[in-house]
Amino acid sequence: MGVDFWQILMNGAVELISPTTAAYALAALGLAIHFGYTGLLNFGQAGFMAIGAYGFAISTLTFQFPVWAAVLVGVGASVVFALILGVPTLRLRADYLSIVTIAAAEILRLIFTTNTFDPVTGSANGLSGYKGSYGDPVTREGAWGFAGLNPFPKGSYGFGPWVMDEYNFFLTIVAWVIVILAALLTWQLMRSPWGRVIKGIREDEDAVRALGKNVYFYKMQSLILGGVFGTLAGMIFILPRAVVPSNYATTLTFFIYTILLLGGAATILGPVVGSIIFWVLLSIVSGFIARAQGAGWLPFLSSVQAGQLRFIIVGVVLMLLVIFRPQGIFGNKKELAFVK
Amino acid sequence: MSSNATPSKGAPVKSTGLHVGEPAPGVAKVDPIIVADNVTRTFGGLKAVDVAHLEIPRNAITALIGPNGAGKTTLFNLLTGFDKPDTGTWTFAGTSLAGVPSFKVARLGQVRTFQLTKALGLLTVLDNMKLGAKNQKGENLFRALLPFLWRKQEEEIEAKALDILQRFKLDAKVEDYAASLSGGQRKLLEMARALMSDPTLVMLDEPMAGVNPALTQSLLDHILDLKTQGMTVLFVEHDMHMVRHIADWVVVMAEGRVVAEGPPHDVMKQQAVIDAYLGSHHDQDLGATESENVEAMKELLHDED
Ligand SMILES: Nc1ncnc2c1ncn2[C@@H]1O[C@H](COP(=O)(O)OP(=O)(O)OP(=O)(O)O)[C@@H](O)[C@H]1O
Ligand SMILES: [Mg+2]
């Protein structure tokens, strides 16, 4: 056996609770509000995430804002972005929103990539150094930024495959607490009369209008709320890594759609479990391919090609899942019986 | 809602003396709820609606009839803010409604149903009904997060919904998805849902289409019941039996215009109405649609009561 299956599984287990998994879960939850509950075809969730990432990083690096202010800047920018997208399109047919969001997210990415704003955005190289510092291990002198907020003493935490330093431990806890709070908020909203209007709009917005509800206003609220979830996800996403503009391409939005459909579009747990499955599966498959290639089992592939192969395999697995369980893992089979 | 006004089984009591002067297109009403002036709407070169003056009497049942494509649905869309006219003004209970968006029209108490039924498929029948209620505290994003603010109202709404559903014989379907209802049941649900808002004017676009004849009588009784409860009804219908049976007043449209108005028995004998249904070229070959119109004409002229 040239391949260490145990190690591959362990690496997969790491993804189970990683902050990145949490970030994708949160972004997918935002998309569940848009697409699953309201029927808004937002193809620009990557744009909302980019706003979170850059809003946080630029506020911290360029303006030396404290963490709370950097978060507020990101959220505020995302509300403005949602208004810009929504005001002209939400009165029109559903497909206009999808075209405008996909274009707007790409425009954002190109603005962040261009050299023109290099001193602020870091252009194609992106940004780093915004995570802050733990400061002195005892006195906490010099502590700043997100790392400076860490209440845990320096050291190693966790067990089994989930062993991490104090920074990642803190980040993991913060990330999942935010996901849980967002899931509870969504759950409460969707069982309220507000959620009933939202789901009614998904089914037929003219019928909801005829019942005296301001459909435009509700769609705007939904777009903002789901977008803010995406923005917070964008902030979580950059805390274990650097900000790189190429991460915010349209493929990011499609991965989040994959996660959403995998878990169930109009569900609360679906996006969370979908994200976990997606990342664990991706890690296991890529681990396996890398070892197999290293052991010479895939002589017809270069290592770069092998790196791409994981997306093909994951794509096929997800296709099978969607074909044989189209309502997603948590979706209601009964609902699906009526999908036209 | 006073639910126990058992609909009469015999011939319904017709409201009379609704108009002032001779019944003619645009005749004034004693107590109009809708007054429309010079409302026009064109699609390309086609004048779909061209109504010079129209008044709908309050607390009466008015039928809007006319051949296919006469502009009835378009007029409904205009009056409810779902479509914008080229010209025209109209008032509802004294309030000018031109340019008012559809959701505000509904909030003012003028509620409609659609010719192509709009049941909200992946909501349960009960949720469909609850959505119809007005002024819900929990429909505000922030209050939605605090259930103690709206739970009591929610219970009241549910009780009311169950009461109406029972009257519409949909109480066995409360927890089912609306998508699982039959076409006729969806028509009933849409009408029941409209009643959740306690409207003053109910506008029904072909409420009978697709409804099983066994249900027709009870649906007629429901509509008559609305009048007893003080509401005004304006409905579009091709079923002349229904029109004759429950309408107090009939407005006939053809090619966008109001061509005749009057009490049901008189209006159907007018030459303008016969022309509207048969076309003015009686002598030519009758196509399929025209022979249907002849059927409609025979029904119109046939006096049953
Ligand atoms: N959105 C539209 N675009 C173009 N033409 C339209 C549109 N809506 C209606 N029309 C045209 O306007 C005319 C009136 O249509 P409308 O639907 O109001 O008729 P109707 O009286 O309700 O007929 P029916 O009894 O068949 O329902 C028709 O000739 C129709 O083709
Ligand atoms: Mg029509």
Automatic annotation (TrEMBL), chain A:
A Pfam entry, by short name: BPD_transp_2
Coiled-coil region list: none
Membrane protein topology class: Multi-pass membrane protein
Keywords per UniProt: Cell membrane, Membrane, Transmembrane, Transmembrane helix
InterPro entries according to UniProt: ABC_transp_permease, LivM-like
Source taxon at top rank: Bacteria
Localization per record: Cell membrane
Residue ranges of the TM segments: 12-33, 40-61, 67-87, 94-112, 167-187, 223-242, 248-269, 276-294, 306-324
Keyword Membrane: yes
Main location: membrane
PANTHER family: HIGH-AFFINITY BRANCHED-CHAIN AMINO ACID TRANSPORT PROTEIN BRAE, HIGH-AFFINITY BRANCHED-CHAIN AMINO ACID TRANSPORT SYSTEM PERMEASE
This protein's name: Branched-chain amino acid ABC transporter permease
UniProtKB/TrEMBL annotation, chain B:
InterPro entries with a match to the protein in the record: AAA+_ATPase (IPR003593), ABC_AA/LPS_Transport (IPR051120), ABC_transporter-like_ATP-bd (IPR003439), ABC_transporter-like_CS (IPR017871), BCA_ABC_TP_C (IPR032823), P-loop_NTPase (IPR027417)
Keyword Ion transport: no
Keyword hit for Lyase: no
Keyword list, A-Z: ATP-binding, Nucleotide-binding, Transport
Ranges where the ABC transporter domain occurs: 34-280
GO molecular function terms attached to this record: ATP binding
Region (Disordered): 1-20
Cross-referenced Pfam families: ABC_tran, BCA_ABC_TP_C
Protein name: ABC transporter ATP-binding protein
